[in-house]
Amino acid sequence: MTPHLLASSTTPLSFSLPSFPSQRTHYIPSHVYKHPTAILLELCTSMKELQQFLPLIIKNGLYKEHLFQTKLISLFCKFGSLTDAVKVFELVEDKVDPMYHTMLKGHVHHSSLASALWFYSGMISDGVLPVVYNFSYLLKSCADNFNVKAGKMIHGQLIVNGFSRNVFAMTSVVHMYAKCGVIEDAYKMFERMPERDLVCWNTVMAGYAQNGMLNRGMELFLQMQEVEGHRPDEVTVVSILPACANFGSLKMGMSIHGYVTKSGLESFVNVETALVDMYAKCGQVGTARLVFDRMTCKTVVSWNTMIDGYAQSGNSEEALKLFDGMLDEKLRPSNVTVMAALTACADLGDLHRGQEIHALINQLELGSAVSVINSLISMLRTKWACDQSFESLL
DNA sequence: TTAGGGTTAG
After folding, report:
1. Structure-model confidence comparison of residues A62 and A278, the more confident one
2. Where are the PPR repeats (predicted)?
3. In terms of domains, do A324 and A394 share one?
């Protein structure tokens, strides 16, 4: 039994299909491409819609075609039902490579790194040639799981399969090492790349910044422009500004702000939000507010950043005023918003306001998040501690 | 099948 078969679930399908017959030839009749069902599937945006189209696929015998089999696998994965995708995959007798590639993507996105690695090994033992996308997905999963051991193994597979000069694959390798904290290896791989575009420069620069080497990150910010003539984009500045914020480096943050103004990157809402965060964390909450007020478009993240900027810098009254302003704008608060507002209530010892926010949390069904519950407990504990110290004075 | 980098809290 191949490993991917072991990954199957015993859960019944949410629909019933006849067994897929073996398709000896890779020829796909032109009527399949012209069939309206193919177009309907392309336009499918939900599991509900897909289930409505399934009878059409069965009625027209389209389930016999590789094109539709692969599309079904892809759509089940897209809508999060890996179980159904696995069932379809297993029913096909003569699988084609794209089916394996789609299933691997599904495992990465809707299961665990372990199951994706298991599926990959099954794919190789079935004689399927990996494509560069496979490595991008697998390395991203290793990075997200901080699993450098698995990352190294995939890096080895990538070399064996001839992708060590591919800019997409190698950027994923650099990202994986950097995210796992092995920045020296990330840089070694970056140096060996025959072609380095803005994305891989951004990746290695963000790697240094996020691993606490802000000066080196800043050096690369300048080097990418001076040595290779790349123009840092919105991703570059959004990658380095949080490091300036977290290290309280106002000087570097202001220098990035200068670049933002010069390059016309202010139109990006995430750039402006990162600037608000940087100023607030560097102790310049007034400047943060100026940047915030000048934003032509604000997202919930922008509001959260400013509210929390006030709350963390002891401007709790302002934080709550801005929180009210956000509600007046009819914006839906997120977990981060209510956590920031609760921090402000705790600082003020304002139990009444805290209870109002608690009611809002219940109304918006935000109370299941552990982080929100922790903030609520923290607010109540602070109030209790205030009352205790007050009583002890009496 | 159709790819790689980025913002708020903890």
Report:
1. A278
2. 166-196, 197-232, 299-333
3. yes
Q: Which of A124, A152, A167 is the last residue of a domain?
A: A124
Could you tell me if residue A283 is inside a domain?
Answer: no
Q: How far apart are CA A351 and CA A356, in angstroms?
A: 9
A101 falls within a domain: yes
Q: Which nucleotide is nearest to A195 (CA to C1')?
A: B4
Are A112 and A165 within one domain? no
Percent pLDDT > 90 in chain A is 73
User: Are A232 and A271 a contacting pair, CB within 8 Å?
Assistant: no
For the segment A323-330, the average pLDDT, to the nearest whole number, is 96
pLDDT tens string A220-241: 999 999 999 999 999 999 999 9
**Nearest amino-acid residue to B4, taking CA and C1':** A168
Looking at the structure, do residues A100 and A13 belong to the same domain, yes or no? yes
My answer on whether A150 and A42 are in the same domain is no
**Could you tell me the CA-to-CA distances from A314 to A274, A309, A370 in Å, in that order?**
20, 9, 24
pLDDT at A217: 95
Stated in angstroms, how far is A133 CA from B2 C1'?
8
Q: Domain range for residue A163?
A: 130-195
Domain boundary among A124, A149, A180: A124
Between CA A166 and C1' B3 the distance (Å) reads 11
Nearest residue, CA→C1' of B9: A336
* A228 residue type, one letter: E
Question: What is the C-alpha separation between A166 and A189, in angstroms, rounded?
Answer: 12
Q: What is the DSSP letter of A161?
A: T
- Same domain for A83 and A179, yes or no, is no
Nucleotide nearest residue A271, measured CA to C1'? B7
Residue A113: strand, helix, or coil = helix
Weakest-pLDDT range from A101-110, A329-338, A370-379: A370-379
Chain B: nucleotides below 7 Å from protein CB are 1-10
- Strands of A247-314, DSSP E: none
As a whole-number percent, the residues of chain A with pLDDT over 70 amount to 88
